[in-house]
Amino acid sequence: MSKYSVPETLAVSDSGFLFLPNTGETFTLNLVGKEILNLLQDGLSEEEIVKHMLDRYDIDERSLEKDLSDFIMQLRKYSIIKEE
Predict the structure, then answer these.
(1) Is residue 19 within 8 Å of 26, Cβ to Cβ?
(2) Residue 18: CATH number of its domain
(3) What are the beta bridge partners of residue 82?
(4) What's the pLDDT tens digit per position in 29-59?
(5) Which residues are CB-neighbours of 22 under 8 A, at least 6 positions away?
(6) Is 80:17 a contact under the CB 8 Å cutoff?
(7) What range does the domain containing 22 cover?
(8) How far, in Å, CA of 33 to CA of 72, rounded?
(9) What is the pLDDT of residue 50?
(10) For residue 65, what are the contacts with CB-CB under 8 A and spacing of at least 6?
(11) CB count, 10 Å around CB of 25?
């Protein structure tokens, strides 16, 4: 599974509000989305994030992997993260 980098210029508030200064775009994440973004910022791979989330939440692995893949695809689409 892939690892991703988060631009250093990305501003993230405690409430999950994201701001990309180079484009002026803003986004809002829910608590789980913000947790995943924080894990990506910490350098965790998708596999490590899946393990972390399975330990923390009551969700089946298949659903989690699909949801995480969809979320990462959206983050990549809006250039919030880049694949390393």
Answers:
(1) yes
(2) 1.10.10
(3) 5
(4) 999 999 999 999 999 999 999 999 999 999 9
(5) 7, 9
(6) no
(7) 4-83
(8) 10
(9) 96
(10) 50
(11) 12
